[in-house]
Amino acid sequence: MAPHAIIVLLAAGASSRMLGTDKLLEQVEDRPLLTLMAERCAKVAPTRVVLGPGQPERRAVLADLDVKIVEATDTDGMAASIRAGVGGLTGTTTMIVLADMPEIMAADLHLLLSLHAQGVAPIVQAAGSDGTPGQPVVFSSKYLKPLSKLTGDHGAKSILAAHPGDVARIPLPDQRATMDLDTPEDWAAWRAKP
Q1: Which helix (H) or strand (E) is 138 found in, with range?
Q2: CA-CA distances (angstroms) from residue 127 to 38, 136, 177?
Q3: What tens digit of pLDDT does each residue of 29-51 get?
Q4: Distant-in-sequence, close-in-space partners of 188: CB < 8 Å, separation ≥ 6
């Protein structure tokens, strides 16, 4: 477990591009993706899972896990989820993880938190093997206030853009830091990979 760190797993999105199915309930390694990602996060640090209102199926697949569920009730997208996830936190390093990235492993989360704890930079951001900025992102405690004031559906991009000198990008193998699965076609292509 990472000392003095919290993981915020963002899982409140509506899966609107999945044509009626829920991407976070898609089966990966014999369980729903949301269960798998929450398990990976909980192995590394105390985890808050952010859900939206009216998502009983997602709540159900988290029922047996050692995670705290918080609800994003505002409607301005990813910022609402981040605000809900960091609400009430003080003095803690916070890692933001997206729940629709099945290639992110517990070892990746541990690596990013360890590098942050070693003082590599105030913000440690995963990147693709080619350096493309990706997810997850670790923020030092000084960013809790800006995270709690985010608006809109762009996540924390505004914070990263405003503080480029504070960001260290850590390449992860292949495209695991940039691979998210939003559509049935994304899922089909991902499952077809050798």
Answers
A1: strand 133-139
A2: 21, 9, 5
A3: 999 999 999 999 999 999 999 99
A4: none
* DSSP symbol at 15: -
Tell me the residue type at 175: Q
Integer Cα distance of 35 and 14 in angstroms: 17
Burial class of residue 23, CB neighbours in 10 A (0-12, 13-18, 19+):
buried
Residues 6+ apart with CB under 8 A from 100: 13, 23, 24, 33, 180, 181, 182
pLDDT tens digit string along 80-133?
Answer: 899 999 999 999 999 999 999 999 999 999 999 999 999 999 999 999 999 999
Q: Is the pTM value of this prediction over 0.85?
A: yes
In whole angstroms, give the CA distance from residue 171 to residue 47: 23
Residue 3, number of CB atoms within 10 A of its CB: 9
